Amino acid sequence: MDTVDPVRFLFASFVVLGLLALLAVFLKRYGNKLSGAKLFAMHQTKGRISILEMQYIDHKSKLLLIKRDDIEHLVLIGDGKATIIEAGIKRDT
After folding, report:
1. Quick one: 3 and 40 in the same domain?
2. Domain span at 47
3. How far apart are alpha carbons 5 and 31 in whole angstroms?
4. How far apart are CA 84 and CA 93, in angstroms?
C-alpha cells in the first residue's frame, strides 16, 4: 500500500468537513432570511388579513404579528396551540 492514498484520504476528508462547516455557518447566518415561510407568506398584502412579522422562539414555538384591517394581534403558536398574547393593538400611523 502506498503512503499517498492515506494522505489523499485525510486531505479529502478535511476538505469535505471544511465545506460542511462553511455551509453550516451560511445557513445559521442567512437561513431565516431564506426560509420559504418568509418568502411567500410575508408578501401577501391582498385582502384584509396579513402577517406582518414572524419570530421563532425555539424549534416548536413562534410569535406572529397579524394585521386585520387596522388592528394588530400578537399570537404565540406552539405545541399545537395558539395563544393570543395581545389583541387589539392599534398602529400609530
Report:
1. no
2. 36-93
3. 37
4. 23
Give bridge partners of residue 73 from the DSSP assignment: 66
Helices in 1-93 by DSSP H: which ranges? 4-30, 36-41
pTM of the model: 0.49
Q: Would you give the DSSP letter of residue 91?
A: P
**Closest by alpha carbon to 74, among 65, 83, 82?**
65
- What domain count does the chain have? 2
Q: Tell whether 59 and 75 lie within a shared domain.
A: yes
- Single-letter amino acid code for the residue at 60: K
pLDDT single digits (tens) 1-52: 577 788 899 999 999 999 999 999 988 887 766 655 544 444 455 688 888 8
Same domain, 7 and 41: no
Same-domain pairing of 12 and 44: no
Residue whose cell numbers read 431564506: 34
